[in-house]
Write a structure and sequence with these properties.
alpha/beta; five-stranded parallel beta sheet; elongated
C-alpha cells in the first residue's frame, strides 16, 4: 500500500510511546520507508535501538544529527513525504503552536513544509486545559491534522479523554494523506458486499459463500484515495477505517432499499457526513459524479413463504420441498441515472465467463463489470483475487494479487477510463 512512501515518525515523552513501535511496524509492513525522530524525554521511555530493531532507519536525535549526511532536521524535511508525531505530549503541542523549537523534533517540525499529523497523548485535565485546546485549534488552522485521542483508563489511573488514538486509526489517517488523489477526493462512493441472507425460518436461511472481503478491501482503498465511502454489507469487515459508514443488511430486498435510498441522497446533492469528533453530522456537497460498486453476491431466489419460529423435522417429513421465488435484481431495478455503476460477476465456467459478463453489461445497463473466476487461489473467502475489468469498448485484466492491492488497481482503472 505505501511502497515508495517515506514517513518521518516523531515520538515524544509519553507512556503511549509503546504504541509507536507498533505503528512503525505497520508502516514498514505496508512498504513505507520510516525514520524516527526522538525527543530527549522520549529516550527515557524507549531507546533508539528499539525503533531501529523494529524497522526504522537510523534514528534522528540530538546525538546522531549530522551535517555530513542528510540525517539532520533540515534535510529530512526535504527527503520525507509526511511527518507523523505520535505520541504528541501537551508540552510538544503547546510549543508547536507557538513556533518554539528548543529540541530536535520541534526544529524538524518547524522546518517541515509537507503534510503533518499529530496524535495527542496526555492526562484529561491537560488535554482539556484552555491553553492546549487553543494550541490544537491553532495547529489545525496552520495545516496540522489531528488524530483525536480517545477516552479510556489512563496510565495515571483516572478515566477520561487523552489516551492516544488506536494505531490503526493513525495508520489509516497517514495512509489517506499519502494516497488520496484529486479524482477520488470528496467523491461519493457506495459499495455493496457479502452474500445476501434469505430467511427460511428463524434459524435457517439461504445464502452463498461470498465472504465480503473484496467489498471491504474496495471500501478501504476508495477511502484512502479520498472518497466519502458508504458500505452496505451482510458481512462484517475485520479492519475498516472508522470514517467509512457501514449499513448492515440481510436480504436482497433490504439491500435494494438501502442502495435506492443512498442513490436518492446522491441525487439530492447533499450528504450528511458523520462528524466522529463531535458526535454530530455535517453536510457535504456532492459535486462529483457518484460511483456505485455492486460487489455483493445477491441470492437469485428466496423462500416464497418465510416461516415464524423453527420448523420441526418431524413436521416436514423425510422429503422437504422448499418453494422458492425469484429475488429482486438490484442492478437491473435501481435508478442509475447520474451515477456510474460497476457490477461484479463471479463465474466458474472459464469458457463462458467473458460472454456472460458482457451480457450482464448490456442487460443491466451498467458502465462496467468486474469479472472474476471463482476457483483455486481466487475461491470464496480467499485473500487474493484476479479480475477482468470490462466496459463496452475495453477489457483490462489484472494480475493475481491481494484484494486490497486489487482494489487500488480498480480505483486507478476507473479513474483512467473516466478521465
Amino acid at each position: 500500500m505505501l511502497s515508495g512512501k517515506k514517513i518521518l515518525l516523531g515520538v515524544t515523552g509519553s507512556i503511549a510511546i509503546y504504541k509507536s513501535i507498533e505503528l512503525l511496524r505497520r508502516f514498514v509492513k505496508a512498504g513505507a520507508q520510516v525514520k524516527v525522530v526522538m525527543t530527549p524525554a522520549a529516550k527515557k521511555f524507549v531507546t533508539p535501538l528499539t525503533f531501529e530493531a523494529a524497522g526504522s532507519e537510523e534514528v534522528l536525535d540530538a546525538t546522531t544529527e549530522s551535517w555530513h549526511s542528510r540525517n539532520n532536521h533540515i534535510h529530512v524535511g526535504e527527503d520525507y513525504d509526511i511527518f507523523v508525531i505520535a505520541p504528541a505530549t501537551a508540552n510538544t503541542i503547546n510549543k508547536l503552536s507557538n513556533g518554539i523549537a528548543d529540541n530536535l523534533l520541534l526544529q524538524t517540525a518547524l522546518a517541515f513544509t509537507k503534510p503533518k499529523i499529530i496524535a495527542p497523548s496526555m492526562n484529561t485535565k491537560m488535554y482539556t486545559n484552555r491553553f492546549t485546546e487553543a494550541s490544537l485549534k491553532l495547529l489545525r488552522l496552520n495545516g496540522y491534522q489531528i488524530v483525536e485521542p480517545v477516552a479510556k483508563e489512563l496510565a495515571c489511573g483516572t478515566t477520561g479523554i487523552g489516551a492516544m488514538a488506536e494505531v490503526e486509526d493513525i495508520f489509516y489517517t497517514t495512509a489517506k494523506a499519502l494516497l488520496q488523489d484529486d479524482f477520488w477526493s470528496d467523491r461519493y462512493a457506495i459499495v455493496t458486499g457479502g452474500g445476501t441472507i434469505e430467511r427460511i425460518d428463524d434459524v435457517r436461511y439461504l445464502s452463498n459463500f461470498s465472504s465480503g472481503k473484496q467489498a471491504c478491501a474496495l471500501a478501504t482503498a476508495l477511502y484512502l484515495k479520498g472518497a466519502t465511502v458508504e458500505l452496505i454489507t451482510t458481512r462484517a469487515c475485520e479492519s475498516l477505517p472508522k470514517e467509512v459508514q457501514v449499513f448492515d443488511v440481510e436480504s436482497a430486498q433490504e439491500m435494494y432499499e438501502f442502495v435506492q435510498d443512498r442513490i436518492r441522497v446522491a441525487k439530492k446533492g447533499i450528504l450528511k457526513k458523520p462528524d466522529l469528533i463531535n458526535d454530530l453530522t455535517q453536510p457535504q456537497l456532492i459535486q462529483k459524479k457518484p460511483y456505485l460498486f455492486m460487489a455483493a453476491a445477491v441470492s437469485d431466489y428466496r423462500p416464497k413463504f418465510k416461516q415464524e419460529g423453527k420448523l420441526k423435522k418431524e413436521q416436514l417429513g423425510d422429503v422437504w420441498c422448499l418453494e422458492l421465488e425469484k429475488n429482486i435484481d438490484i442492478l437491473a431495478s435501481i435508478d442509475k441515472e447520474g451515477i456510474a455503476t460497476i457490477g461484479f460477476k463471479a463465474e466458474m465456467d472459464a469458457e463462458k465467463a467473458l460472454e456472460n459478463a458482457q451480457k450482464m453489461l448490456e442487460a443491466k445497463n451498467i458502465d462496467a463489470v468486474c469479472l472474476n473466476l471463482v476457483k483455486g487461489a481466487t475461491g470464496f473467502g480467499s485473500e487474493r483475487n484476479q479480475i477482468v475489468y470490462i466496459t463496452r469498448d475495453k477489457s483490462i485484466k489484472s494480475p493475481l494479487k491481494s484484494k486490497l492491492a486489487l482494489s487500488f488497481d480498480i480505483a486507478e482503472i476507473v479513474k483512467d477510463l473516466d478521465e
